[in-house]
Amino acid sequence: MATDTAAPPASEGASAPRHTPPDVDVAALTALLDGKYAEVRGLVRTNLAEYASILEEAETLDRDAFRERVKEVVVEMASTGQTGMGFPEEYGGGGDIGASVAAFETLALGDLSVLVKVGVQFGLFGGAILQLGTQEHHDAYLARLVTGELMGCFAMTESGHGSNVQALGTVATYDVATEEFVITTHGEQSRKDYIGNAAKHAELAVVFAQLEVGGEGRGVHAFVVPIREKGKPCPGVRIEDDGAKMGLNGVDNGRLWFDGVRVPRGALLNRFADVSAAGVYESAIENPNKRFFTMLGTLVQGRVCVGGASINASKVALAIAVKYALRRRQFEASSDDHEELLLDYGMHQRRLFPLLARTYALHFAQEVVAAQLHDVFSGISDDEHTRRELESRAAGTKALGTWHGTRTIQECREACGGAGYLAVNRFTALKADSDVFTTFEGDNHVLLQLVAKGLLTDYSSEFSDLDQFGMVRFVAGMAVETVIERTNVHKLLERVKDLLPGGDDWDQEAGLMDPDYQLQMLRFREEHMLAGVARRLKRGIDNGMNPGVVFSRVQDHVIAAARAHVERLVLEAFVAKVGALPDGDLKVALNLLCDLHALSTIEADRAWFMEHGRLTVQRSKSISREVNRLCRRIRPIAEDLVDGFGVPPEMLRSPDLVG
Amino acid sequence: MATDTAAPPASEGASAPRHTPPDVDVAALTALLDGKYAEVRGLVRTNLAEYASILEEAETLDRDAFRERVKEVVVEMASTGQTGMGFPEEYGGGGDIGASVAAFETLALGDLSVLVKVGVQFGLFGGAILQLGTQEHHDAYLARLVTGELMGCFAMTESGHGSNVQALGTVATYDVATEEFVITTHGEQSRKDYIGNAAKHAELAVVFAQLEVGGEGRGVHAFVVPIREKGKPCPGVRIEDDGAKMGLNGVDNGRLWFDGVRVPRGALLNRFADVSAAGVYESAIENPNKRFFTMLGTLVQGRVCVGGASINASKVALAIAVKYALRRRQFEASSDDHEELLLDYGMHQRRLFPLLARTYALHFAQEVVAAQLHDVFSGISDDEHTRRELESRAAGTKALGTWHGTRTIQECREACGGAGYLAVNRFTALKADSDVFTTFEGDNHVLLQLVAKGLLTDYSSEFSDLDQFGMVRFVAGMAVETVIERTNVHKLLERVKDLLPGGDDWDQEAGLMDPDYQLQMLRFREEHMLAGVARRLKRGIDNGMNPGVVFSRVQDHVIAAARAHVERLVLEAFVAKVGALPDGDLKVALNLLCDLHALSTIEADRAWFMEHGRLTVQRSKSISREVNRLCRRIRPIAEDLVDGFGVPPEMLRSPDLVG
């Protein structure tokens, strides 16, 4: 019915153009999405199909057995080269960081315990050794960890300290007499918690602790600490299993306590700072804050990977829900003798297609951030400014990508009704396993605050090395007006003034499908919101309010501004990608998706645009109508668009939904 | 910090009143929420605490053992009288339908497998025997099912037929020679599916099938069919286990196939229709559609119960998240020497408090629908109109209540960070178990269509007994303009015209905190949306479009209009409750919540109000500011407000979050 075989209704105008749906070449679409890493993505797809039984094993094995099975699969996948793409070739790696992100993302089409175990072993543990350590550490560990022979964990988070890493309580004291560090857990808030690989498999831990040398605190540093030998905890180390989790039960998360555990001086991962035998602390980075954030910045790959994984998990959910809606009939609507396909209902299209369009948008935005990561970490463009931009973009894409994953998986599950509730139909695992993505590798709200802080401060200013994680500290720790006057924000206020209502009329005259119009709308919102935040912060401080109170009151605007910024980046990525395509049916199809994404993004915040004089009532209503119309135009190609994701059929499972 | 010990900022006006937080009497608040069923709610709370180990058993026992344990708990709870409140006293019940709903709702504070098992046994199975059967069936089954000795299931849903019950494919043919019904499953789409109690425990099933008598189809009727004896399927019955589900794994859902299963003539639940020995079909209700919906209407209690359960599950999530946020500190914000409580961050308040306010609103709306159910089914007010109103309200409250549950549990889980992901901390079970509520007992979108249909048709008109579940059929099967002219909708269009922009200025001059203003806004939206739907339907049909296409295009408006209607009912219930309270601190506290609920509801749809001339830009912004201000005022009493829910401490579990 919604495929519009009837004549267009009068309300759309007698001259409304009839659209022939584009003829989508699914293989070409997959090739476009896979991009330059088609080969490694292909390898991962093959491996996923090879180990497809893991989806069922996740249900049938008990927790211990499933953990062992996941470990086994991870090690076997490692032998294909899939998981070591990011390590130098001399240690058995692939020497290609971009390929390593692509491999990880693609792995998210399958069981997510396998994904997270890979992330813990090769991304967090391996990444810390690689990025924070030096030659000696690389020689000692990399070759064995790349094969999975040496398992490790990444012991940063503490029970009482999640996103605020600078406040963690584990202490490493240098003992000059023995040339050792003594590592100790101070109180229950400082136990390491939720540490993947800790409960069962890790022999080593990279432990983040407050370094003390000669009685002086030097801030958080990382140490390689043996925690388990032949399956038993090392002396002074206590290990507890975190037990059952909502999902990801193939990963052995645990807690760690250290009671005066001694490690040699060489255990300090000393790329950015070292302690001499005699107990002299040395670092090339003088400012302790800057040093801390430089160290942490090297770990940005984790965020890029989690964002990409969430986007790919969304693809699985959408593929199932769209295919189900093309199979399942419900109610006789347009004829008396057969029930209608779910996907021919307007509401069903409204529920699924904007999410489908957004998945494409985020895919291309993810491609941009992954490419930046590759360039920065391959030394292609590694200046301070580019690094900061990468960190901000990674944080923002991770936040939007993971929220999108949670929302999409939920909507798709509901769109599959009762059948969606059976474990065999995939949503059980997808929902439970992906749920933690919104809060790990940085809670999404904290990450957006980081993005906002980046926007509010000039990268070259003295403020840039302040607390990466806290707009809170940023506001609390200084007179905010100084920042506003010194930095971009000042220029920004000027720029926004030019765009205020009463200015030009671009927003009235431009076509809704004009990408320039769509982008201008998102740019206006971003800059206006940002300026508003700066103004409110300044006013609060000027009024003598406690900075904490000021921050608390402005916090929702801070988050909204950061979100607006990332939304703009996402749309830019999508528009650029489509714009670069040669004319043809593929371009037509992606243009439909890009328009749907842009307009449904504006529609979702149309109240704000009206409040700020950038959208008339009439135009706002037109946008909603256009979103519906685009949904109808996407309907005939919906299956092609999910097939283009290239999800291996074995990963869809769901015999009752898509079989 | 957000407790506002600082002076109010200039932006709020120097004369902004200082508010002393109300002193909330938690016991009095609980008494108010418990209402007239405090006693039975108390009994359930005691039972929940008694069987608190079930929360842990849900994790530690394997599926089979957990199913047995849940059955055991259900039977033991039955012996306290808790689960039989709705059955007549002569069969060992409590003879109080309102008490039965209250008991069920309260049970949702605990393990939800126990809840759903109770719902299946006493609500669906027992309810069908009670409501669709006659004396003979009551005498044969009720006493034994009330104790849980006789377990049964409710076999309505089929794999290919969920919400569209009228289309189901199981057939019951009357064999006049043997005076038996012969029940047969026709094809895989017609197997009964997701049937609780079917996989293990049920001896009997109430089977819904197309009745055929003398070669003539008589529509869907219900039959009592033995499916299992001494643990083995009865001859001709095939039973399959639905296997692992996302949650509710203590309930044994299964599939049923019938291959010429013969049951005696008395197996027909014959309250509304019967077949004589000679094979003559008789019913006091002549119209087959009306008969069908009368039968189904008696089962409305299930929807009322699921809605109430979701609202109570939300209370558990909120209690944990609020208590955690009063314990967990993160980042130094307002001072250098301690980190700030999560609940003192504005964003955190924004995330939790509107959901808290809405939980209160829905609680009181649920109280209204439960009271209506009691009155209708106790014969206190049982006319056609009241029944229709009850069905509509039950459908709407179920939809909004269950969506609220899913959303609240998710937000609370994220607000508890990584700790929220551990199974011991309650969200795992809450999320997984409650997830299906949005799609069972009627998919929420289908239910809202039912609500919309009720609004569009006059109850007394000939259209009222058309397909209860389908606006689709409603549009497809008739000339819609006839409806519009004949019914309320016509008056409605007139009424809305009077309210269009350019009319009076009530919305400009009224105070935002004036409940009349808040209600008028929601009433305007409801009536305007409804009239818009009617107009669009008519226009489409007038233009000669296929009714299916017309419906598909208007469907999102249909859903929105129904939602707007239910939102208005919810706010009315809350306003009425608060208005009736004696002056005092409790009233002050609930007024804050009621204002927050009303304004955040308007805020969420402020784009629509602006688009329809009922909200100026300035006023829209004021509403957002007021929502933030209300959040700050609720902050000091937040813990009292969740304590008022009276969740037994054992049900919070979460040693790491609230311990």
TrEMBL record, chains A, B:
Its EC number is 1.3.3.6. Its main location: other. Residues 297-456 form the Acyl-CoA oxidase C-alpha1 domain. InterPro entries: ACOX_C_alpha1, Acyl-CoA_Oxase/DH_mid-dom, Acyl-CoA_Oxase/DH_mid-dom_sf, Acyl-CoA_oxidase, Acyl-CoA_oxidase_C, AcylCo_DH-like_C, AcylCoA_DH/ox_N, AcylCoA_DH/ox_N_sf. Its cofactor is FAD. It is found in: Peroxisome. GO terms for biological process: fatty acid beta-oxidation using acyl-CoA oxidase; lipid homeostasis. Residues 514-655 form the Acyl-CoA oxidase C-terminal domain. The keyword Glycosyltransferase does not apply. Residues 39-149 form the Acyl-CoA dehydrogenase/oxidase N-terminal domain. Residues 1-22 are annotated as: Disordered. The keyword Glycoprotein does not apply. Residues 1-17 have a biased composition (Low complexity). Keywords: FAD, Fatty acid metabolism, Flavoprotein, Lipid metabolism, Oxidoreductase, Peroxisome. Belongs to the acyl-CoA oxidase family. This is acyl-CoA oxidase. The lineage of its organism: Bacteria, Bacillati, Actinomycetota, Actinomycetes, Propionibacteriales.
